[in-house]
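Thread title: Can someone regenerate the structure for this chain?

I was given the following input by a collaborator and told the matching structure tokens would be attached. They weren't. Posting the sequence so someone can regenerate them.
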Amino acid sequence: MNKVTTVTWLSALLLFAGCAAFNTGTQVQSGRRALLINDPDRALPYFLEAAQTDPNYVYRSGYFHEGIWTYVGRTQYATKRYTEARQSLERALSRDRDDLLARLYLGLALVRSGDNAMGTKEILAGMRGIYDWIDYINRAHPFEAYWDPLGEIRKAIEPYLPRTGGDLVVPEALVADAEWLGYKMEDEIERVRQDERRRYERDYDRRQGGSIGFGIGF
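Best answer:
Regenerated them for you:
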């Protein structure tokens, strides 16, 4: 293979990889939009297609991350496919033990499947993880997009923080609050993403304005 052929082949490969990544991101965003308006039946095919294209895909926003199998699993949960949801969420956690929403939804899927003890333990671990992460990220990055500015998420979690799970009987309130938390976190991810975009656009406009002003003054 000569040098020109090698360069052409590598260029084509990079272009294909870029297109695949773009398509996967588009599928995930379409799924997220459907999920945010509470239409999991429409969201699920998007996430499944994205997972088939790139099973290692991770959506990131404002330091928070969520794997594609978490999106698949939580959408399967929302469509009452609890066994499939459990498998997808276990797969998500096998790839990333720190995927907080995967742990929360695995707990919900376990509870819905009848495993109350383990399900409760996972839900409470997911809640604690989300609470601690929000506190940490706001302290570590005080001048960036602020998570849970009104404290709604953390206030909803606080009543459950002293509890440890195990043989705890699952109250319906815990399941309802965990489901609300899952939706609220996705909504918060979107809010932070939009805040970051607006801040970037403002910073860009200021830089452009500064450059123009400097040029005219000079």
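Helices lie at 3-36, 40-53, 68-78, 82-95, 100-112, 116-140, 152-157, 172-217.
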